[in-house]
Design goal:
Aminopeptidase, 2 domains, six-stranded mixed β-sheet, five-stranded mixed β-sheet, 32% helix, binds zinc ion
């Protein structure tokens, strides 16, 4: 029968303390498999290896295929008497690496007693392990740790004779870091298998305060290229300055009409679709420990753009200028008026903004600044007839944000269980700043989604020297054991 979640967490701790060597050895074996999504042979080795971990733990495992994509590992384990189903999402692929930048080989798991940036020394891969030690390898934090923690939790529960309280399904994606190009197809094709009462998305870092975090959503992502034009050949700035239009001046002025220095968006209609935060969401943000002061110091920025805490800043849509290109600087600078200037503009969306609508209001805004909007390089005729021409490139695909309602009953159950496990208050945030295509799961499968990250906030995910702090792994084992018995 299902146990009290606190009892399950306690049993998981005891079991873990007696099996740390075995858990770390298993983790290292998984991390030794290179896992870049485009590396077809190795990515399949990962999937097969994960299948071999899950089958003996009572799962019915299938590798879900979709034309041209790495397989997703789908696993299912029924619990007799359970009426609800929990889906756990993890991705087993990782970001590409530049091995030369790493302090040790990214596919050779290495234990250190501290982060590399703080001079961490290599330690033996032998128990006893200090919980502040870190295991370094690609995907140690993003996102193989939950796979190991989950297996350890199930082993601990089996050893203690504890039953799960829910049916459990797993969906481990193999191309998340490549932008999930086949996720929609994969979800649609296998929709019937993927039904669940809740999807628990185990990816990303815990709160910067080191407290455990439940996130209810993500922002959407979109972007475009913007080119404005000057003369059709570079002109001498002495002979033609003040006379021929300067595309760099025009571009920076045009960008300034889109966003002020506080990050407020000045484009008319851009916020029309935005759903304001609910009272519950605002209260949760209020209750989260502030991290702004620490981050200001860490990032050397003097002060943030706006006098609001970061958790509120990410509740707003954002325009981010990703890059700007025209002419040259330093020794290569020439005294000429350039022919064009281009900016790359990134957008972060909040509910319920849609890429299509934003495209319309942005184009209208550019027109209102006196520009002819084109989608192909302008012809000689267009250039002769129009003073201002803006080329907008919408080839990037975008997607909307996702946010689960804060009062979702099953979310409150998960939060309640996690809250009991720690003497530190659980951090609950309405959204992460970053983007994941969670809207797809909402749209195709129709299940609510919660994000329960496992990795330490300083795990260097996507960068060199990615690592997982062992205490995070140990905690995750207890959280899984408690949630799987307490839901
Ligand atoms: Zn990830």
């Amino acid at each position: 029968m299902p146990a009290d979640p606190m009892v399950a967490a306690g049993q998981a701790r005891e079991w873990r303390q007696a099996h740390e060597q075995e858990i770390i050895d298993g983790f290292a074996e998984l991390l030794r498999l290179p896992n870049v999504a485009s590396d077809g042979i190795n990515i399949r080795r990962n999937a097969e290896y994960i299948r071999s971990l899950l089958t003996p733990r009572g799962f019915n495992v299938r590798l879900l295929e979709s034309e041209g994509s790495p397989p997703a590992v789908f696993a299912e384990r029924k619990t007799s008497g359970a009426v609800r189903t929990l889906m756990i999402y993890v991705h087993y692929d990782g970001q590409p690496v530049n091995a030369a930048e790493w302090a040790s080989d990214p596919w050779t798991p290495t234990m250190r007693d501290a982060p590399v940036e703080l001079g961490g020394k290599i330690m033996p891969m032998k128990a006893p392990f200090d919980p502040e030690w870190r295991l370094f390898a690609r995907s140690a934090g993003d996102d193989k740790a939950p796979i190991i923690a989950l297996n350890a939790a199930l082993d601990a529960m089996a050893a203690a004779g504890l039953d799960l309280s829910v049916n459990l399904k797993l969906f481990f994606e193999g191309e998340e870091e490549a932008g999930s190009p086949h996720l929609k197809q994969m979800l649609s094709q296998h929709r019937a298998l993927l039904d669940a009462d809740l999807w628990l998305f185990c990816d990303g870092p815990v709160h910067q305060s080191r407290r455990w975090l439940l996130s209810y959503g993500v922002r959407g992502s979109f972007g475009f290229g913007l080119t404005v034009f000057g003369p059709n050949r570079p002109l001498h700035s002495g002979h033609y300055g003040n006379w021929a239009p300067n595309p760099i001046a025009r571009l920076t002025r045009l960008l300034d009409t889109m966003r002020d220095e506080q990050g407020n968006i000045l484009i008319d209609g851009f916020d029309d679709q935005v759903v304001p935060p609910s009272l519950l969401e605002m209260a949760a943000i209020e209750a989260a420990p502030p991290v702004d002061e620490t981050l200001v110091g860490q990032f050397g920025i003097g002060r943030p753009e706006n006098a609001e805490r970061i958790e509120l800043a990410v509740m707003r849509p954002a325009i981010n200028f990703r890059g700007i290109r025209s002419g040259d600087v330093g020794e290569k600078a020439r005294n000429s008026i350039q022919t064009s200037a281009t900016a790359s503009v990134g957008l972060r969306l909040v509910p319920a903004q849609t890429p299509d609508y934003l495209r319309q209001v942005i184009e209208r805004h550019v027109r209102e600044q006196g520009y002819l909007v084109v989608h192909q390089p302008p012809t000689a005729g267009q250039r002769a007839a129009h003073d201002r021409i803006a080329l907008l490139d919408w080839s990037e695909s975008g997607y909307p944000a996702y946010r689960a309602p804060f009062d979702l009953p099953m979310a409150q159950e998960v939060a309640g269980i996690m809250q009991q496990l720690s003497d530190q208050p659980l951090v609950q945030l309405p959204t992460m700043g970053g983007s994941l295509p969670l809207y797809l799961i909402d749209e195709v499968v129709g299940a609510p989604i919660l994000i329960l990250p496992v990795a330490n906030h300083d795990n260097n995910q996507h960068g060199k020297n990615e690592n997982l702090r062992l205490q995070n792994l140990w905690d995750a084992i207890e959280i899984y054991a408690a949630v799987l018995t307490g839901l």
